[in-house]
Design a protein that fits this description.
The protein has 192 residues and is of the alpha+beta class. The protein has a single domain, classed as Nucleoside Triphosphate Pyrophosphohydrolase (Alpha-Beta Complex). Helix content is 16%, strand content 30%. The chain contains 3 helices and 9 strands; from the N terminus they run E-E-E-E-H-E-E-E-E-E-H-H. The strands form 2 sheets. Strands 1, 2, 3, 4, 5, 6 and 9 form a 7-stranded mixed beta sheet that branches. The C terminus is likely disordered.
């Protein structure tokens, strides 16, 4: 059975900050700043996206390929848009901002999971991020169960930098956004 997930990708246009470390909501005190700050601008240097760094010990000291669109799983028969709103609220600690959302597409991940992504332009500026948590035996084999946040920070990130930060399977989400915004000509699979 295919695992289904739904998420929300917020974007804004304006001067790119270049690094999640520049965002008021990330990174938290004691976290390493992004090593990718100052990377070359992409096709839309003025475009930023709101992405989240995955929580837990596996992702703790990683930046590249350790970020995600705020998202979560849902059951067959559940409305993806409702699931996306719920998951955003659980991971951010606040509901998605009022905006004109549109369905960006369905994106099959290397694991086989399919993520339905909704997008909207917004200048979302939460005062803090309060993610829900998950239990995990840590250290592995210790018998000790600890709680970890699903995401440990989130930030506005320049589109070019987000390409290096997002898990590889989610990079096509950025391509779809650029195509939708008219910033990139359609590729061979999209033309005609």
């Amino acid at each position: 059975m295919v695992v289904l997930s739904a998420g929300i990708l917020l974007y804004r246009r304006g001067p790119a900050t270049g690094s999640p470390a520049d965002s008021p909501a990330g990174p938290p005190a004691g976290s390493p700043a992004s090593p990718l700050a100052g990377s070359a601008p992409g096709p839309r240097a003025d475009l930023e996206v709101w992405i989240a760094h995955m929580g837990g010990p596996f992702w703790a000291n990683k930046e590249a390929r350790a970020w995600s669109v705020p998202k979560g799983e849902y059951s067959p028969g559940e409305e993806p848009w409702l699931a996306a709103q719920r998951e955003f609220a659980e991971e951010m600690g606040s509901p998605p901002p009022p905006a004109d959302y549109f369905r960006l597409g369905d994106f099959k991940q290397p694991s086989g999971k399919v993520i339905t992504v909704f997008a909207a332009e917004s200048d979302f500026t939460p005062e803090e991020i309060r993610s829900n948590t998950f239990p995990l035996e840590w250290p592995k084999g210790s018998g000790r169960i600890q709680q970890f946040p699903e995401i440990d920070r989130a930030a506005w990130t320049a589109e070019a930098e987000a390409r290096a930060l997002l898990v590889r399977g989610q990079v096509p989400v950025l391509d779809a956004l650029l195509t939708r915004l008219g910033s990139r000509p359609p590729g061979p699979a999209e033309a005609g």
